[in-house]
Design a protein that fits this description.
This protein is of the alpha+beta class. It has two domains: 60 residues, Arc Repressor Mutant, subunit A (Orthogonal Bundle); 126 residues, no CATH class. Helices cover 42% and strands 17% of the residues. The chain has eight helices and nine strands. The strands form three sheets. It has a four-stranded mixed beta sheet. A hairpin with a 2-residue loop joins strand 8 and strand 9. Helix 4 crosses helix 5 and helix 5 crosses helix 7. The longest helix is centred in the first third of the chain and has 13 residues. The radius of gyration is 19 Å and the shape is elongated. It starts with 9 loop residues before the first helix and ends with a helix. 28% of the residues are buried. The N terminus is likely disordered.
């Protein structure tokens, strides 16, 4: 495998520098570098980085800068939430996580799901990535917007847990991720939710 320093062009170096800022595990497509140069040039650089083993192809036109396990001496599986976000940027979809995706993101589930579902204002689509299924289900534009990504992930996690969210088993973990900024965003989204979910969230927000 080539090292990150074996880069042949300045455009490749610019792309790699951005990936380093984003960090290991980030997922991206050509469209994430539209300001860096012509699409064909970006595509050639990504192909070169792929050949050198620096980035990994996941789907056609989609790559990640993989995390590496020193213990296992191999690249770790791609983060499906990062894959979903990259696909949403590429296709200009607004997506909203389902309950299992949200629980997985916040670390509230110990299970490694083989299927992750997101709701989207784009078409319903299904992708297979290293044996796991990433699925997008179309819903109306109004239903697909609850706030920014973290706000939606938080709300969907609470919806999935239901009243269990306010028990001792989960409440401490949930409150640990509820920053003042996130709390403000969740409060603004309350009118869009059902009364049952609002009551659970109000208990947490107190």
């Amino acid at each position: 495998m080539w090292s990150d320093t074996q880069i042949s062009t300045s455009l490749e170096m610019k792309i790699l520098q951005l990936l380093r800022r984003w960090g290991r595990g980030c997922v991206f497509s050509n469209s994430d570098f539209f300001s860096y140069g012509p699409s064909a040039s970006v595509g050639r650089c990504l192909h070169s980085l792929k050949v050198k083993g620096i980035i990994r192809p996941l789907l056609r036109g989609l790559y990640d800068y993989p995390k590496f396990s020193s213990l296992l001496q191999e690249a770790l599986a791609p983060d499906l939430h990062q894959v979903a976000m990259a696909l949403a940027r590429k296709h200009k979809w607004h997506i909203q996580p389902s309950g299992n995706a949200a629980l997985n993101y916040w670390g509230l589930s110990t299970q490694v799901p083989t299927r992750i579902l997101y709701f989207s204002d784009g078409p319903s689509r299904k992708f297979i990535i290293e044996g796991r299924t990433l699925e997008f289900k179309h819903i109306s534009g109004k239903e697909s917007h609850l706030g920014n990504s973290d706000c939606e992930l938080f709300i969907q996690a609470v919806k999935e847990l239901g009243e269990a969210a306010i028990t001792d088993d989960y409440k401490h973990q949930i409150l640990a991720v509820l920053t003042p900024k996130l709390k403000s965003q969740v409060e603004k989204a309350l009118p869009l939710l059902t009364e049952k979910v609002r009551n659970i969230l109000r208990t947490l927000l107190q």
